[in-house]
Amino acid sequence: MAKNSEILKLMYEAMLSRFGHQRWWPGDTPFEVAVGAVLTQNTSWSNVEKAIANLRALGALEYEGMRYLDRDALCAAIRPAGYFNQKANKLLHLLDWLGENGGGKIESLSEQGVQSLREGLLSINGIGPETADSIVLYALNKPTFVVDAYTHRIFARHEIISPESTYYEIKDFFEGNLPTDVDLFKDFHAQIVTVGKRFCRKREPACDDCPLKEFLSGPVKLQEERG
DNA sequence: TGCCAGGCCGGGT
DNA sequence: ACCCGGCATGGC
Questions:
Q1: Cα(A194)–Cα(A200) distance, rounded to whole angstroms?
Q2: With contact defined as beta carbons under 8 Å apart, do A7 and A159 qualify?
Q3: Which residues does A221 contact at the CB level (< 8 Å), separation at least 6?
Q4: In chain A, what are the domain boundaries?
Q5: CA A159, C1' C5: Å apart?
Q6: What's the CATH superfamily of A30-139?
Q7: At the top level of CATH, which class does the domain A4-22+146-224 belong to?
Q8: A184-205: buried (b, 16+ CB within 10 Å) or exposed (e) per residue?
Q9: pTM for this one?
């Protein structure tokens, strides 16, 4: 029985050798990354791309540009990403917070540590643990591990974590068994999403060609999910 | 056609 | 402290 740290290392190497370094997050600037993190909540990235394109065309992929939009225009622009009413509010709350804390400059937050940044972001209505961690890791380049539905599903199906695990239990598991390294955290999560999209969707085991297949201890049991 | 997607919040037990 | 409905569009 190998140690968890060894298993994680081997699983990462299997994904890396299969897919190559993922160069995540898709997004050119920290602001764009943060906006994408909000828009992709429970939403496929292909829909988010349409919303991002609309925002870019409006010059609203920067703080001042998005501020300039009224709420209706913002809703119209992000409509393809779904939940547009809620997400418009979330983006406006994010703008308010950025204005109060960094003068609208995400980069100016880099002075702060991971804990301080997480707490600040979590105080924003509409930003929960995953969105906060995504922004801290991918926009601010600070080492915090991002847990998402694929992380939960893949590692529960592999019986490495319990299906009942909470966000913070899973996060602690990864952070406790991996070296604290920003680039590793970024690429590990990216690999998980790549594997998840292709091999670990909700009702399809479809593990035949999965790079993590060899790490399965037994047949995938779909009914064990929903924890 | 129905189910799913890189969550989160608020109100009810 | 959980549990659950609501939120909304686009793809397969």
A1: 9
A2: no
A3: A157
A4: 4-22+146-224, 30-139
A5: 30
A6: Hypothetical protein; domain 2 (1.10.340.30)
A7: mainly alpha
A8: ebbbbbbbbbbbbeebbeeeee
A9: 0.95
Structure confidence by residue, pLDDT tens digits, A109-155: 999 999 999 999 999 999 999 999 999 999 999 999 999 999 999 99
Nucleotide showing the shortest C1' distance to residue A25 CA: B6
Of A109, A81, A79, A82, which Cα lies nearest the Cα of A94? Answer: A109
Work out if A43's Cβ lies within 7 angstroms of strand B. Answer: yes
**CA atoms of A184 and A16, how far apart (whole Å):** 11
Alpha carbon distance A10, A8 (integer Å) = 5
Query: Which window residues (79-138, chain A) lie with Cβ within 7 Å of strand B?
Result: 82-83, 86, 124-132, 134, 138
Unique residue bearing structure tokens 């991918």: A138
CB of A151 within 7 Å of some strand B atom: no
Query: What pLDDT sits at residue A225?
Result: 42
Contact A105, A63 (CB under 8 A): yes
- A196 contact to strand B (CB, 7 A limit): yes
